[in-house]
Amino acid sequence: MSLNLTMDNVNELFDSYKDKLSDKNDALEAMMMALKEETMATTLALSTRIKELEGELALCRAAIENFFCAKGIMDDTSKVNTASLFLIDIALLWWRGRTTDKRQGEIGTWQEFQCELKGQFYPEFAEEEA
């Protein structure tokens, strides 16, 4: 085999691999774009849902505060005890565990109750991501 023929074969092989790699790169770029679009759509949907839930939470807080006023509940202990009666599902399980765990201190104020509840169930980075 001559040197020129060998060089031609090497160049053909190189071009073949280059074309294959280019095709794979194009496919990867298309997949990345699709993932980016899907991520953006999901982020938008989650952001919208977070805003909806924040609105519901504000209504719930207002309703609880109105209930407290209507029933004349002013002291923190009564507020915490009354609000805990309305917990359901996972929040109720959390509260039962929270109140029976002797390693954790007692929740003494209405503010502490709200902060702990929010800390337990509010997504840590929800505001940053929204």
TrEMBL record:
Superkingdom, natural source: Eukaryota
Name of the protein described by the UniProt record: Uncharacterized protein
